[in-house]
Design a protein that fits this description.
The complex is a heterodimer of chains A (380) and B (369). Chain A has 380 residues and is an alpha/beta fold. Chain A folds into two domains: 279 residues, 7-stranded beta/alpha barrel (Alpha-Beta Barrel); 74 residues, no CATH class. In chain A, the strands form two sheets. In chain A, strands 1, 2, 3, 8 and 9 form a five-stranded parallel sheet that branches. Chain A has a five-stranded mixed sheet with strand order 4-5-7-6-10, with helices on one face. In chain A, 48% of the residues are buried. Chain B is α/β, with parallel strands linked by helices and 369 residues long. Chain B contains 14 helices and 15 strands. In chain B, strands 3-2-1-6-7-8-9 form a seven-stranded parallel sheet, with helices on both faces. In chain B, strands 12-11-10-13-14-15 form a six-stranded parallel sheet, with helices on both faces. In chain B, helix 2 runs parallel beside helix 3 and helix 11 crosses helix 13. Classes of the chains: A alpha/beta (380), B alpha/beta (369). At the A-B interface, helix 1, helix 13 and helix 18 of A face helix 8, helix 12 and helix 13 of B.
Chain lengths: 380, 369
């Protein structure tokens, strides 16, 4: 008897507009890239959000969604049908909604109070939009440590997710239920099996290509442990892996082969009813599911990122209601350089195509809204 | 392999880009193959090189106190090519390698006369040198002939490759792009300098290099931030016009025009500057870009500067888009986080352009014949 726990991230940032010299001369305060944000949201709605959710529901696959507040805001503004489709899936009982920070931010690593405020904002949105009260929490890009788990516990959540890094999986079998020192249930991502779907599914040079539902169900059945946690970006289904790769057919046949091998799909909140706590795991150093390092380096990897992060924190009063949108982790993720080999990969996910332009536009927006030197750590 | 190179410059006789390229590249290839380089005899002596040097006496050059003075460049070039063909020793030569139009006629005639395969390198084209303004037809004719009749063509960037495919009808299957290298030693050994709020232009002050766009950037930056200096290092026919532009627009007091700057002094300029701008209208490669990067100076370059196509850690813009270049300049000057990140990653990236790599790729072209 084996369970698969699917968890998907649904998030969209409010990207900042490419600023030009005319804007710096003080002729605008219009800093969000509305037309780009709308274009991207609508494209992904058609490729992924709508069809993938309909398929999951139709095929009876249970999964847990984490919707950032900025995602819900954009869905309401650009494509309300996305909300309707997700609502249907939730009402069917097949989908659990999880809590996270409204802005998909890094608040958890520097300000407990701000973190709590943003999580409350997001759960309020879940209540308003879906009339839903979440019991499970997952943090931005699976950023995790004992303290974050404790904060989630204090806010009343029963479950939290984290990355099954190489270091953790060398000491624990990630395919079980665990608990953090604070007592909250801890579920660790099985990253090789998750990446088989999200990264390798359509890779023709992969030795296991093509990945069929039959093959994948067999791998799950052979995996050591009783709970396989497959956590990934929802855009895997239809956007990163296009329909012509066969990703939706894969989903279609998955329940049939899961059944054949005696595998159930379950929600995060259901795991504690079916599995015993194997152990307590303490993770003091912050981990995440980002990049190869699985730490904070995707956001704090270079001086551009660190100085912008610091500056945004300083600009709280000047930015007012806009402060949270600047805290969205994507804002400084776009400034990531990573390995030289990663450069082109990062470029793909970067609307500005360059970490340097991301820095220039973000700081120019801050110049416009807060004043030229406000919040800057002047080192020169 | 026995290789005859028809050259033009070779240090210490000139030390322009072509001379630096020739000496660096063939100092490596000379260890693997038997290389003879033909150069015009301008009265210089050469040090011991790992290749043979054959000096060709020009008939149409006047010799004044031992050094040659050339009156008409085109005539001198044709004279030189005639003399090379006359004195050429074809015995056992596997290939002839020519560099730019100034050596193509000799290579083409040797190929015709002895059937020896011809490799030509385009370091630049007449379109680049004229900035597309009145290119000389007789020079284009030589370049076209080289592009169409050489057995293999080497270009210093894909930008140049496209140019000779589009304008000269070269067969792109015979073309290979090989980037120049740079020797980092003098830059690394030069002491680090405190970065000033100075923006640098370094190169000939001619329309090809786009100095007037640099001046426009200066004007636009100064409108928003008065605490910046701009340096135009180099000479050229547009220099007086640049000074006049600064004077008429009231920012001459923010400008420095040091004129010709030696190689050694240039390193100091690079290292004291916070931004290096090359707004070239058409630059086949752009050695100064790599020199600036190795000096740790952030680079803003035009999209029509060839080496940019192989770089991640620079900022690029259309050569006429001075608004954009001004925004980039202000951002680098006012954010040490940006300056330091570009500096650090740029240096590492530029160090990957080595003459060793260029030599290995060039020998690969020889072997493909």
């Amino acid at each position: 008897m084996k369970d698969v726990m699917f968890y998907f991230e649904l998030h969209q940032p409010f990207r900042l507009r490419p600023i030009n010299l005319t804007d710096l001369r003080g002729e605008t305060r219009d800093i969000f890239w509305d037309e780009k944000n709308e274009e991207i949201f609508k494209r992904i709605a058609v490729n992924n959000y709508i069809p993938a959710t309909q398929h999951l529901m139709e095929y009876g696959i249970r999964s847990s969604f984490s919707l950032s507040g900025t995602f819900m805001e954009q869905a309401s503004r650009y494509c309300p049908r996305v909300i309707d489709v997700i609502e249907d899936y939730v009402k069917s009982g097949l989908c659990e909604l999880m809590a996270e920070t409204y802005y998909h931010s890094l608040a958890s690593i520097w300000n407990d109070e701000e973190f709590t405020r943003q999580v409350s904002m997001q759960t309020r949105s879940l209540k308003n939009v879906f009339n839903y009260d979440p019991v499970s929490f997952r943090n931005t890009e699976l950023i995790y440590n004992d303290h974050i788990a404790e904060m989630a516990k204090k806010m009343g959540f029963r479950n939290i997710l984290a990355e099954g890094t190489d270091e953790i999986s060398s000491r624990y079998n990630v395919n079980h239920r665990y608990a953090a020192p604070s007592g909250i249930n801890l579920y660790l991502r099985n990253y090789p099996l998750s990446d088989d779907i999200s990264f390798r599914f359509s890779n023709r040079s992969w030795k296991d290509y093509p990945l069929t539902a039959d093959k994948f169900a067999r791998w799950i059945s052979l995996a050591d442990g009783d709970l396989i946690n497959l956590f990934m970006d929802y855009e895997t289904f239809g956007e990163h892996q296009r329909p012509e790769t066969g990703i939706f057919e894969f989903l279609k046949y998955l329940p049939r082969y899961f059944q054949e091998y005696g595998i159930d799909t379950i929600l995060v909140r259901e795991a504690e009813l079916r599995h015993r706590t194997r152990d307590f795991i303490s993770i003091e150093k912050t981990t995440s599911w980002a990049d190869k390092n699985r730490d904070l380096s995707a956001w704090m990897g270079n001086l551009m990122q660190v100085s912008t992060f610091d500056r945004i924190r300083e600009c709280k009063d000047k930015l007012g209601d806009l402060w949270g949108y600047f805290q969205t982790s994507d804002v400084i993720y776009y400034m990531s350089i990573g390995d030289e080999q990663d450069f082109t990969v990062h470029e793909y996910f970067n609307p500005y195509r360059s970490p340097y332009l991301a820095f220039i536009y973000t700081n120019a927006a801050l110049d416009i809204l807060c004043g030229k030197n406000y919040g800057k750590n002047v080192m020169q | 392999m026995k290789i005859s190179v028809i050259g033009w410059e070779l240090p210490p006789a000139f030390s322009g880009g072509l001379g630096i390229h020739t000496v660096n590249l063939f100092s490596i290839i000379g260890h693997f193959h038997n290389v003879t380089i033909y150069v015009p005899d301008l009265g210089y002596d050469f040090p011991e090189y790992p290749f043979n040097v054959r000096k060709i006496r020009l008939k149409r050059a006047k010799f004044i106190s031992g050094y040659a003075v050339i009156d008409d460049f085109y005539d001198a070039v044709m004279d030189y090519n005639d003399r090379v063909v006359e004195s050429f020793d074809p015995d056992g030569v596997d290939l002839v390698h020519c560099h730019d139009w100034i050596t193509f006629p000799a290579g083409l005639r040797i190929k015709e006369k002895y059937g020896i395969p011809l490799v030509v390198t385009f370091h630049s084209t007449e379109f680049d040198r004229s900035a597309f303004f009145n290119p000389q037809e007789r020079i284009m004719a030589v370049e076209r002939e080289g592009a169409q009749n050489a057995d293999r063509i080497i270009c210093v960037s894909n930008l140049t490759k496209r140019m000779i495919v589009d304008h000269y009808g070269a067969d792109d299957r015979r073309i290979r792009t090989i980037y120049n290298g740079v020797d980092p030693t003098p830059y690394i050994s030069y002491p680090e300098q405190k970065r000033e709020r100075n923006v640098l232009y370094f190169g000939r002050v001619t329309s090809q290099k786009g100095p007037k766009f640099f001046m426009e950037v200066a004007m636009k930056v100064l409108e928003l931030d008065g605490n910046v200096r701009f340096t135009v290092a180099g000479t050229g026919e547009l220099l007086p016009e640049m000074k006049r532009f600064a004077l008429e627009n009231g920012f001459l007091n923010h400008m420095d025009f040091p004129g010709f700057v030696s190689f050694r002094r240039a390193i100091g300029y690079y290292k004291r500057s916070s931004v290096f701008i090359i707004p070239a209208i058409s630059e086949p490669f752009g050695m100064t870009v790599l020199e600036a990067m190795i000096s740790g100076t952030p680079v803003i370059l035009s999209k029509t500067t060839g080496v940019g196509e192989a770089l991640n850690h620079v900022l690029s813009a259309d050569f006429w888009d001075t608004d954009r270049m001004a925004l980039y300049t202000i951002s680098i000057l006012n954010h040490s986080g940006l300056l330091k990140t570009m500096s650090e990653f740029g240096r590492i990236e530029a160090m990957r352009f080595t003459w060793r790599k260029a030599a290995i790729s060039t020998m690969g072209v020889y072997e493909s014949l």
